[in-house]
Amino acid sequence: MHTIEEYQKLIQSAIEKELVHREPVELYEPIKYTLYMGGKRLRPMLTLLTCDIFDGDILQAIYPALGLETFHNFTLLHDDIMDNAPIRRGQQTVYKKWDANRAILSGDTMMVMAYDFILASPKDLLFEIFTVFNRVGKEVCEGQQYDMNFEKKNNVTLDEYLKMIHLKTAVLLGGSMQVGAIVARTSKNNTQLIYEFGESIGMAFQLRDDLLDAFGDEDIFGKKNGGDIRTNKKTFLYLKALELGSPKQQEELKQLFSIKDKQDDNKVERVLSIFQDLKIEEETKRLMDCYYDKGFKILKKIDLDQNKKHVLVKLAESLMKRTN
Amino acid sequence: MHTIEEYQKLIQSAIEKELVHREPVELYEPIKYTLYMGGKRLRPMLTLLTCDIFDGDILQAIYPALGLETFHNFTLLHDDIMDNAPIRRGQQTVYKKWDANRAILSGDTMMVMAYDFILASPKDLLFEIFTVFNRVGKEVCEGQQYDMNFEKKNNVTLDEYLKMIHLKTAVLLGGSMQVGAIVARTSKNNTQLIYEFGESIGMAFQLRDDLLDAFGDEDIFGKKNGGDIRTNKKTFLYLKALELGSPKQQEELKQLFSIKDKQDDNKVERVLSIFQDLKIEEETKRLMDCYYDKGFKILKKIDLDQNKKHVLVKLAESLMKRTN
User: Fold this and answer.
1) Which of A44, A82, A199, B94 has its CA 20 to 30 A from that of B213?
2) DSSP assignment of B11-74, as one string?
3) Which residue has the higher pLDDT, A161 or B220?
4) Three-class SS of residue A315?
5) How far is A129 from chain B (nearest CA, A)?
6) Distance of alpha carbon A25 from its chain centroid, rounded?
7) CA B67 – CA B110 distance, rounded (Å)
8) Beta bridge pairs of residue A87
9) Which of A229, A70, A85, A289 is nearest to B101 (CA)?
10) Residues B109, B27: contact at Cβ < 8 Å?
11) Would an 8 Å CB–CB cutoff place B152 in contact with chain A?
12) In 3D, which of B237, B276, B40 has the Cα closest to residue B158?
């Protein structure tokens, strides 16, 4: 087994190798900017780690992993245009730094690049990996559409929200692990179970993200608190508060979520105070734990040495405790 | 051999079959709108026809053909956002009918759909078809970037322009034929030659398009004359006129191409008059003929019955004489 740092190094050097000498520079400059910016490299890391725990050759998993990372970054690039988001990972978004056209086209090109990396999968596994990749890709797009729909929809249910984050986040995390298992040529059963494990941890991970956005430590998390509240995003926290709140609280929440001024700190304070009154943090953690437990039940069914399972447990724990 | 109409029917019914029951509707509505809108179905038709002339099973070519058509329509959808184009094929563009976000995301989803269709290629040919598709896809994006660069660039050369239309248009037409040849499992040599044939005809086809935009019959062509002139697009016609014009004509052209008012009919008239003085129509036709002849030289080298070659000649002729 390799360390997380070793996986990240492998990914980083593969990305750098792939991005030299590409023209026109106007097209590849925003792509380099996006892919060099880094981030956690969570998805490709999951692919390499999963391949590794199933005793696969991780060198065979690098390109599929790169495909998943490039696809993920492409979605962020286009999401930032759609959300008018000026900052990503503490830096200007492509759409802000250049313009929407550059962001659209370099995103499109990144998508083709992602498929180019998938094409470099072991040939006999190409069909299987391509199938997973396409299913996940389509679901991520569908998730983003539901997310956009929710901005205009007044009666979003908790179930609809969970379906949306499942599509937008969880399937790609599950898919990243699934691809690693495919490259390792483990059993169909293990491959399916590791997908479901990743999917469950992915749900917990996204809920954790929602929670950190509202209650995280600004200094550690690197974002200003309450970003979702400022943009009136109907997260689990908000929807749960609407469910649990008194008619008066519901009304106040709805009124607060009609304020468009993103600088309104008082609004953030008011919303957070309602969340606290209704113990929304605890409610969210409870649901996170449900997904977390579900993941561990799935893990038990996987045919894998106990010490390898322990690696996955540690990984999931680090994702849940993450401070950035 | 089948007729063009039969190819088009096969494509149409495959598209319709593939677009039922997809959710969320907000995402798939613009996709249906775009794919049902039709157009000439030139690319998939080239794939089926090429497969057919090389005695392949055209039913095996339908999905790869659909992949190429869907990819092409995806690029139009995103190009229309980048160009602020309100009308396409006589109807509102997706970006105008809905909004830019819907157009971005439904375009992205179309791209994944295109790859889904490619995935339905005969399994033993998947790697080869996927490779062609990705190369072409990347080149089309690069071509679009050069096209956007030219808007701001003052000293675009004729060679640069030809490189741009090669990437943006010709490679996809060539690639569509190449994929048909791959499905027909003809020789590597034939496959490469038919690609080059399509590429050359594609260059002539795009020059023809530039010409029709300036000199076409409005009623037949369905677009208002001089669209490229109104948007100050540096086409072959404009660049050739700059090359051939007297210093005074060059200066006037540059001045005319700094006018931003798209309704300025007088500008169009002035530009067309300079084009006529410099015999730009003839110059363009001369270059078209060069590409056309190049295509026919390539055709001679293809190992194929004379009557099948004749089908390709007829096809090329119909593309060159097209009035819509």
Assistant:
1) B94
2) HHHHHHHHTSS-S-HHHHHHHHHHHHS----HHHHHHHHHHHHTT--HHHHHHHHHHHHHHHHH
3) A161
4) helix
5) 11
6) 29
7) 9
8) A92
9) A85
10) yes
11) no
12) B237
Tell me whether B72 touches chain A (CB under 8 Å): no
Give the one of B113, B130, B141 whose C-beta lies nearest to A27's C-beta.
B141
- Cβ neighbours, 10 Å, residue B190: 18
pLDDT in tens, B3-20: 999 999 999 999 999 998
Pairing between β-strand A87-88 and β-strand B91-92 as defined by DSSP bridges: unpaired
CA distance A232 to A255: 11
Closest-CA distance of chain A to residue B165, Å: 14
| B104 in contact with chain A, both atoms CB, cutoff 8 A | yes
CA B323 to CA B222: how far, in whole Å?
9
Q: Where are the alpha helices (DSSP H) in chain B?
A: 4-18, 25-36, 42-53, 58-82, 94-97, 100-119, 126-152, 158-165, 171-183, 188-215, 218-221, 227-230, 236-244, 247-256, 265-277, 280-301, 306-321
Q: Which residues of chain A lie closer than 8 angstroms to B153, CB-CB?
A: none
Put simply, whether A145 touches B (Cβ < 8 Å) is yes
CA separation for the pair B252, B246 (Å, rounded): 10
What DSSP state is assigned to residue A152?
Answer: H
Which of A104, A112, A149 shows the shortest C-beta gap to B138?
A: A112
Q: Write the residue in B24, B107, B141 that is nearest to A142 by C-beta.
A: B24
Reduced to 3 states, what is the DSSP secondary structure of residue B139?
A: helix
Residues of A in contact with B149 (CB under 8 A): 24, 26
Q: What ipTM score was computed for the predicted complex, to two decimals?
A: 0.94
DSSP codes joined into one string, B275-287 = HHHTTHHHHHHHH
The pTM assigned to this predicted structure is 0.95
Q: If you measure CA to CA, which chain A residue comes closest to B24?
A: A142
CB B60 within 8 A of CB B97: no
Which residues of chain A are within 8 Å of residue B148 when distances are taken between CB atoms?
26, 101, 105
Q: Is B128 on the interface with A (CB under 8 A)?
A: no
Instruction: Flag whether pLDDT at A114 surpasses 70.
Output: yes
Q: Is-contact A280 A241, C-beta < 8 A?
A: yes
Task: List, in sequence order, every residue forming a beta bridge with B87; answer none if it has no partner.
Answer: B92
Residue whose structure tokens are 């090109």? A109
Q: What is the pLDDT of residues B162-207, one digit of tens each?
A: 999 999 999 999 999 999 999 999 999 999 999 999 999 999 999 9
The number of angstroms, rounded, from the C-alpha of B16 to the middle of its chain's C-alpha atoms is 22
Q: Which residues of B touch A166 (CB under 8 A)?
A: none
Per CB-CB distance under 8 Å, the chain A contacts of B104 are 78, 81-82, 104
Cα separation of A64 and A177, whole Å? 11
Q: Look up residue A91 and give its DSSP letter.
A: E
| Interface membership of A152 toward B (CB under 8 Å) | no
Residue ranges in A87-235 assigned as alpha helix (H): 94-97, 100-119, 126-152, 158-165, 171-183, 188-215, 218-221, 227-230
What is the per-residue pLDDT across B81-118, written as a single tens digit (0 to 9) for each?
A: 999 999 998 899 999 999 999 999 999 999 999 999 99
Q: What letter does residue B240 receive in the DSSP assignment?
A: H
Contact residues, chain B, for A73 at CB < 8 Å:
none
What is the number of other CB atoms lying within 10 angstroms of the CB of residue B296?
Answer: 16
Is pLDDT at B324 greater than 90 in this prediction? no
Put simply, the answer to whether B101 touches A82 (Cβ < 8 Å) is yes
- Considering only the beta carbons, identify the residue of A26, A104, A131 that sits closest to B119: A131
